[in-house]
Each structure stands twice: as C-alpha cells, then as structure tokens.
Amino acid sequence: MIATSHCIKTVLTVAGLFILTTIASLDAQAAPLALEPSTNEEVWIKVPSPVAIDWYEDSCRYDHTEYRTFKDYENCIFKSLAQADNLQSRKWGLSDRVIREKDTIYINTPNHKQPLVFKDYLEPFEEGHSAHYELQYYDKAHHLLQLLHTMYETQATVIVDLNTGRWQELYATNLKFSSDMNQVVGFNGRQGVTRDIIIWERQKADNDGRYATIFASNELYEQDYDNDKKHEVYEARDISWTSNNKVNVDFYYRVNPTDTVAFRVRYIYAADNKEGKWQRVLPDVNTND
Amino acid sequence: MSKAFTATLLSTITSIAIAAPLAAMDDYDWVVMETPVDPATYKYDCHNDYKYETYDALQNCLYNLREDADNALSKQWSISDKVVRERNAIYIKVANRKNPLVFVDYSSPYEEDFNPYYSLQDYDKSRKLLTIHQSFYEGESLTVVNLVTGFWQDFSLRKLSISPDMRYIVGFESEMGATEHVNILERQDSGYYEGYYKQVYSSSDDSKNYDNHKKFYQADKAQQVYDSETFTWVNDDKFYADSFYKLNQADSAAFRVRYTFIKNASTDKWQLYEGSR
Fold this sequence. Notes:
The complex is a heterodimer.
Chain A: H1 5-15, E1 44-46, H2 70-91, E2 98-101, E3 104-107, E4 116-119, E5 131-139, E6 144-151, E7 154-161, E8 167-170, E9 172-177, E10 183-188, E11 197-202, E12 211-216, E13 231-232, E14 238-243, E15 246-254, E16 261-271, E17 278-281
Antiparallel strand pairs in A: 1-16, 2-3, 3-4, 5-6, 6-7, 7-8, 9-10, 10-11, 11-12, 13-15, 14-15, 15-16, 16-17
Helix pairs in contact in A: 1-2
Chain B: H1 3-16, E1 30-32, H2 39-42, H3 55-76, E2 83-86, E3 89-92, E4 101-104, E5 117-124, E6 129-136, E7 139-146, E8 152-155, E9 157-162, E10 168-173, E11 182-187, E12 193-198, H4 199-202, H5 204-216, E13 223-224, E14 230-235, E15 238-246, E16 253-263, E17 270-274
Antiparallel strand pairs in B: 1-16, 2-3, 3-4, 5-6, 6-7, 7-8, 9-10, 10-11, 11-12, 13-15, 14-15, 15-16, 16-17
C-alpha cells in the first residue's frame, strides 16, 4: 500500500523523534503502476525517482536542542500530529469520535463513560523512551480503526473496534485482514526483521475474540544481505490475501538507486488444507499471480 | 521506648562492632515504625484467582482494583471532580487542555513482564500537586502533575519531595542498584526539572561523608526499612534525608541515619553533611 502524501509528511514531521528506518519519501501521485511483466517470472512497476529527505517548510526540526526550550519543540511536534490526525479523522467522518489533542488520541466508544486513550511519550531527557501513535487506516464496513504505534526500534498496529471499544495491539505493520476477518497478516514490527510476516487468527468467542499468533516467518531478513535487493522501494511493499489460506508478500527493488522502475520479488505463504499449517510455498499453476 | 530495651539493642550493636569511632548509645535516634501490613490482607491479587482464565477477564479484575483504589484516594483528597480512573487510564481535568490529561496503563498478553501501570500516590493540597506512581518490570517512577497548570513530568525516582519554592525536586533514584542515591533536580527555564546532583558522582567528599556516616551507625549490620526514607525541607536551601534501620526484622523500633543537604549560597551547589545541621 502506498502512503498518502499527508502520511509521508507526518513521518517526516516526527522522524526526528524516533530512531527508525525512516525511508526516503515518494510523491503521493507516484503510486506504482504495474507494467506488463517482461518475462513470465518478472514483474516490473514504475516508481518515481527517489527524493532526498528534506524538511517541509513548516515541519519540526530534527533536533530538539535547535529550539529555545523543549516545550517549543514539543508544541511543534504535537501540533503537527494533531493536524494530521484530526484531518484524517474528518476525512473518515469520525471527527466526533476520534480526536487528537496534544499528545493523546481520544476515541469515544458507546461502552465507556471516558474515552479510550492512546498517549505519546516525549521526554526531554529520555529520548530512547519516545513513542507515538498516529491514525493509520479505517475500515468503515467493519468499523475497525488502525493506529500505528511507533516505539524505539519497533512498530506495532493497534486495532480498535469503534462499536464495542474492544482493542488489541499487534506487533506488525501493513496489516491485511482476510475477507472473513478471521485472520490478519502483517510485517513483523521489530526493526531489522520487518521483511518477515506474522499471521494471527481470531480466537473463538470464549477467548474474547482476540487475535492470537499462528505463524511467524523467519527467513526473509536475509534479503538485507542480498546485493541485487539493496534498493527496496519501501512504499511499494504489499501483502495481499489471494484466498482465505494464501497470501502474497511482495517487495519491489530498484536495480540502481535512482531508477524509475522496480522489479517485484514475491513470496507466497499458504496454509495446508488438511492441518491448516502455514508455510512458504513455491508459485505453481494454482497460484494466480 | 524504655531505656532497658534500648540498651539491649545497643549491646547487640556493640558486640558486633570492631573498628574506628562508632556511635555511642546517645548518638542513636530511635523511631517506632508502623507495623507493616500483612501482604496477604493488603492486596487482593487477581493473578491467584482461578476465575480469571482469560486475558480480558484478568485485565478486568486488575482494572476494577485500580479503579477502586484510585477513585477512593481521589475522593479522600476531594478532587474526584478532577481526577478519575476508568479502566486502564487516569483522567485529569486541567486548564490547558480541552480533553483530559491521561496516564494510561499498558498491557499486553504477550509481554507479561512489561505491563506498566499507574496509581495515585500523594496529593499536596496547598500547592495542588498530584504525585502518581508508575510500576513497571523491575522498576518504578513517579509523575508529578500540577492540577492548576496541567504541567507534568516523569521522574526516575522512588520517593520525592518538592522544595517550598518549587525550584528543586529531590528524591531517591529508582534504578536498580542506585536506590540509595539522592538526586536533586532543578527547574529549568522550560519549566521541566533536570537532575544535576548525584550523590555518588557529585564529589569524593560527599561520597566519603556518606559512607562514614553509615559506618558510624553500623548501618550495614542492620536492616534498612524498605521504602521508609523521608525528606524534610528546613528552608529552600536546606533539607534532611533520613533512612531507617532495624536490628532485627521483627523489631518495632528503627534507628535513623540522617544527612543534611545544604545549598552553598555563593556557588549555588548542593553539598552533603553528616547528621543534622
């Protein structure tokens, strides 16, 4: 999934706070468009030329010591997070229920007198403890809100059912739910292994309907050392369900750092029909790419 | 306390004494400590209850306990219109926000060791300063909230005290292995407090005085009463830090080891002195 320009801006705004693999931003218009594969095996997409990370005119500075006081820095950060989140909330038609004020996202749900709250941490002398939330995605049909939780060296996604107030944090990014909502897959949120995937399954009603891990891949990190896969187009990576027991995990790479095309590397994971055990499988005639 | 009882205690001390100038009977100040509450009656523990088989049921049990405890304190301090706990969060109405200031417990079924949570600890009515305790895996910290302005800050301290003019916050560090270290934090232009005095690092004199004084009382041969330390401000430039030690775990009396911290008027630096000054 391609980030919108507003998200990119938010990432830049807060990049100074969080030591993360923050990526060079791409222009929002430049969603990769699939080209005809040059061979049966290869799929290439158009990608924009990479742009240098630069500060937007009104974005906050990277280093809080560039501010007169820490408070000024904090004000700048929380102001831009509030603008981004409240704009997003309005776009989704949720502005009466999902609000950011300063360091906190407030979510009003029918079951509770007080709102559900998710709070950022930004301490002047403990930069390693910084963490923040941002509105990520809203699935209107399932009234399911996703918040991206960025911590020191880790990212997670909080899913909130706006009807019930029930919420859960999953240690992954780029979440994709299966069409029956019984399973969810995402990239492992621990820094350094973000190419690996985790799959959760919804527990039966007697176990609160929470999602519990049923599979975690432990192999894709090796791409980091693969010479022809040095230039990943992070924004283009994607996971998609091709059936209720099969997912495609796609990464895109430029051959040269400034290329405007990128080739796709696809991994396929499937659950065995009999035992339901997940594993990586090779593409075959049944795999509809 | 009877003289005879004191003498018995001191004979225990002197029998184990060997070297150097040590405290005589009259040097000891004795204090009767409160009887510790039996942990079995002190706190109902959700983890031991067979009824809570699912994660959410256990969380509900914990949240109910915390709600009861925090809301009772808030009521006792007459601030229940401003400070409320509901489930995993403490909500505080403050002037500088439309929505309440919140402190949120973190919990995850997959990281049982790392489930930090908050509880109300103390309220200074005259200055409207609320102290909130945060527990986490192998540690704790304190948060001070000014209910008038909405100012708040976390401190890696397990006890703290604020000077009469509010320029300084002193406390014992909460990091493991450093819990006897007094830290002094000073308010900066930003309004935040920043630590600059650490007993062990401040000067070799302070460090030596600290050790000498403990040796003088043979404190190492007694048992420090857990979490019993107190700070007492004499004025804006002077405070006492007291620790208490028992000879035997079962004793009701403990002796006090006092240090006086005085800010040097010309250098503005704090210095440690043995005993009362």
